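To the structural biology subgroup,

Please find below the input and predicted structure for Transporter, which we are adding to the shared reference set this quarter. The sequence is reproduced verbatim from the submission form. If anyone notices a discrepancy with their own records, reply to this email rather than editing the shared folder directly, so we keep one authoritative version.
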Amino acid sequence: MKRTLTLILALSAASPLAHAQTTATLTLSSAVTRAVTQGVDVTTARANLQKAQANLRAVRADPTSLITTLTQAEQDVAAQTAALNAAKLGAAQAAVNGYVQAFEAAQRTALAQAQVNLSDRQLKIAQARLAARVATTLDVSRAQNALSGDRQDLANAQASLPVLEAALARTLNLPAGTDLRLGAPGDAPKLSVTLAALQSGLDKRLPALVQAANGVAFATLQVNLADNDYTPARTLEDARTALQNAARGLEDGTRGAQTGVRDAYRAAQDAQARVSVAREAAANAQSALRNAQARLKAGTAAAVEVQQAQLQAQQAELGVQQASGSVWRALAALGVAAGQDVTGLVN
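Predicted structure (tokenized):
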């Protein structure tokens, strides 16, 4: 997917005092790119890493630096590197979730409008049938109630769209009031990496496990430094106890993280499997629509039946979009759980 972000600035001519309004034309890829480069959390994490790197350079340049000070500086860089990676993956997940939700909200609004149009037509038909004395006032009342409910659904869909778009704009650190133009997210990539590969090396990628691994390494250093004939035996004993505690903490954290990766992996597999089901339903709906159109042409179906078939086809297409969106969200969640991008959207 082309990673582009086009920002179009337009001045409103409604008033000489009107402010410039920003329009952001986005793809899912460009939205994630912006999130992982300009997101607030990512910017903060990047600054923290640069600070840690500067400190490490200073410690290495100082010939009087103790081994413990050097080790802590090196470990801080490792921890901040993992934190930056996690911040990018978290920003990507937020962008994916926000983008998919906003795009699907626009599709639901269009579907709700189509439903209102059909219900309005069905009400007119009921009224005409009542006038022809082949329907009752109850039939008209039911049609009116259905239309009223559909109009309320449309109003709710229309109201939710700007809220979701504003939330996405905040996630992408775009100016308030930005008019978003969202392209279709497209198909998510197939999950090609194995579960074992994602579960391996978590202590190098996940910030909590990196911290725990650093704790084990530093505790090991403390044991080595205390294991001599000039350090009190109690100090060595305490260092060994600290090492055992740190090792247990790392082991427990690793097991929990591996479980989280496994669950996220299975969720991604399930989401991908459901796309095929949704596409089959959409193909069936399109076939039904073609049949309705053929019957209309042959004079054996009414126009409202074609409109109903069109609405059902539109609903099925939304189902495909929602299934595909679920895959994107599941892959983003898996990336966060594993500390490794599997969406192909994060640099």
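Summary notes: Residues 122 and 143 are 7 Å apart (CA to CA). The first strand starts at residue 5 and ends at 11.

Regards,
Lab coordination
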